[in-house]
Design a protein that fits this description.
Shape: globular
Distance between the termini: 26 Å
Number of strands: 8
Radius of gyration: 20 Å
Strand content: 5-15%
Structural class: alpha/beta
Number of helices: 10
């Protein structure tokens, strides 16, 4: 049985996607998060599995070794909608360094790092310059982007890395949510795909089949991407957000085709997108609908057994990754590596 170490766990979407590809029976050996919502979810969904807590304080020599380490370090400083501070000292995005420490000590056979597309453009370290030009095209100093820093850090400890950007919409989801996925393995020792995915019998198979068609859904068909601040976010300058779209119309309207595609991939219908709160007269975004948009099983984040607040629930969902998106990305990367080493 394959063992997985989960960092920056959230609701575990990255771990779920990786397990779909490498081993459906994989065991999560430990999680690592400090936020109340993720901690409560881990306690209930992975009973008995230790939560390592503050990643900066973990002694990795005392942690159970695992075959795979997964993590999506905080993206606030890399996102185009965030502070754009980059992966520099003192930022939350610099928590990547703690994930690197874990990899260096445990030496897993596979590392999976996920982040926003902005990691390709945000600065990797202020100390080496913040010029707008890419490396070698006019800057007086070398420019290291965040994703380049991650790949370089891994190379420095003997790991080869490959990456690609995969939008959630490319696997059939009704929103774009492009994410960067990077896999790494000890140099010259690729993690081989053990078998081939089916072509339509499971949600993963259907998502992979959809991705292979390489059909881009028109932007007008896609709903706004769920965000951690969906409930209160001011959309000035960014267009309508998901809460505004759902609460201002009946049915799915122009988004019907995208909703139907995701229903086919997941094999289950979409829940009602809006709900009436116990107090108040205006409809609001249904957390259960956001959970469905992210491709999660009903109740994984919205279950009453978690007893999370609405804010905690939406924050968890908005910060997460679509498991099927992660699964297809990792599968494609592993196959590309396998072909290269053939």
């Amino acid at each position: 049985m394959t063992t997985i170490g989960s960092l920056f766990t959230g609701y575990g979407g990255l771990d779920m996607g990786v397990a779909m590809v490498i081993d459906p029976d994989a065991r999560v050996a430990w999680t690592c998060d400090v936020e109340p919502g993720p901690c409560r979810l881990a306690e209930v969904r992975w009973p008995g599995v230790p939560n390592l807590g503050d990643i900066t304080k973990v002694d990795w020599t005392q942690v159970e070794p695992v075959d795979v380490i997964c993590g999506g370090s905080p993206c606030q400083d890399l996102s185009t909608a965030g502070r754009r501070a980059g992966m520099s000292e003192g930022t939350r995005s610099a928590l990547w360094e703690s994930m690197l420490d874990a990899v260096d000590e445990i030496r897993p056979g596979l590392v999976v790092w996920e982040n926003v597309e902005g990691a390709l453009h945000a600065s990797g370290d202020r100390s080496v310059g913040r010029a707008e030009e890419v490396l070698g095209t006019g800057s007086a100093e070398p420019v290291v982007r965040a994703a380049g820093r991650v790949a370089g850090d891994l190379a420095g400890i003997g790991y080869d890395a490959f990456w690609r950007v995969v939008p959630a919409a490319s696997v059939g989801a009704p929103h774009r949510r492009a994410r960067l996925f990077l896999i790494a393995y000890p140099a010259g020792q690729p993690w081989l795909v053990r078998g081939r995915a089916d072509t339509g019998k499971t949600p993963f198979g259907r998502a992979l089949s959809f991705a292979r068609r390489r059909r881009r859904a028109p932007a007008r068909e896609l709903m706004p991407t769920p965000q951690a601040t969906t409930a209160t976010y001011s959309s000035a300058g960014y267009g309508a957000n998901l809460h505004e779209v759902v609460s201002s119309q009946l049915g799915f309207g122009e988004y019907s085709k995208a909703i139907a595609r995701w229903e086919w991939v997941l094999g289950r219908p979409a829940p009602t997108p809006a709900e009436m709160p116990l107090r108040g007269t205006k409809p609001r975004l249904s957390a259960a609908f956001v959970e469905w948009m992210m491709g999660l099983h009903a109740g994984h984040v919205t279950g009453e057994d978690l007893a999370l607040t609405r804010e905690q629930t939406l924050r968890l969902l908005g910060n997460g990754v679509v498991p099927l998106q992660a699964a297809v990305a990792v599968y494609q990367l592993l196959l590309a590596v396998e072909v290269m080493h053939a």
